């Protein structure tokens, strides 16, 4: 039986054939790469003195934060931190009174 280039039903004939596509540059699976990248990100954040806080907000609040952050040319995370620090300073000042 001759090997026909367009015939893909006989998989054993094409087992060693390289298929075109994006070359695999990393021996790890995508899942493993994501896990390693996340671990490295957490280490970077920790060394920069950052801690992760999860916050759930409704869509209106998120939209308002996004608009204000864009207007101030900063990230939403930076804006939330700035607002929290201002509010903490106000509350701390009230405690002294």
Automatic annotation (TrEMBL):
<dbReference type="Pfam" id="PF01402">
    <property type="entry name" value="RHH_1"/>
</dbReference>
<protein>
    <submittedName>
        <fullName>LexA regulated protein</fullName>
    </submittedName>
</protein>
<feature type="compositionally biased region" description="Basic and acidic residues">
    <location>
        <begin position="1"/>
        <end position="20"/>
    </location>
</feature>
<dbReference type="InterPro" id="IPR002145">
    <property type="entry name" value="CopG"/>
</dbReference>
<feature type="domain" description="Ribbon-helix-helix protein CopG">
    <location>
        <begin position="51"/>
        <end position="89"/>
    </location>
</feature>
<feature type="region of interest" description="Disordered">
    <location>
        <begin position="1"/>
        <end position="30"/>
    </location>
</feature>
<dbReference type="GO" id="GO:0006355">
    <property type="term" value="P:regulation of DNA-templated transcription"/>
</dbReference>
